[in-house]
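We treat protein structure as text, and this decision shapes the records that our systems exchange. The remainder of this section carries one protein's record, kept here as part of the documentation:
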Amino acid sequence: MSLPPLPPLPSVPTDADLAALAGEVAAAALAAKLMLVTAESCTGGWIAKALTDLPGSSAWFDAGVVTYSYEAKEALLGVNPRTLERTGAVSEETVLEMVSGALARFGAGMAVAVTGIAGPSGGTPDKPVGTVWIGWKRRGGYAHGRQFHFDGDREAIRRQTVAAALVGVRKALTD
């Protein structure tokens, strides 16, 4: 699975935008006959919520894990403590370990993981508020990650993260 540039996203997706994207992911997952798993940090389970708001989601949604702390990322997703010490929670290395760990722990065929700084605090000069890493992986394939820089308040950043994650899942399932 390669990840060419994602198509343009709504600046700040509405609930209707997120529901439409979730519906497209559901159709793609059903067509691919794959179950999905989410590993979320900054979105707090919002990706899983958007997907499971759809009736019949148990046919293609396996599990969702929310891991905010380093300890939770290590225990629930198998993220290496050295990775977290070296690169921090908001990094390509961490999101790739999160997405791989989600697939390793559940029976799904496709995983998405997100980690980022939604604000309003917590940003640094190297990783300002709005910095988000999203990772995608299909079982048997390679994990891919992409960094995003979203603008707005906490909710706007989280909404944009959910949308980008869903667009990436849809793309991975249909390419």
In short: The chain has a mean pLDDT of 95. The two ends are 8 Å apart (CA to CA).
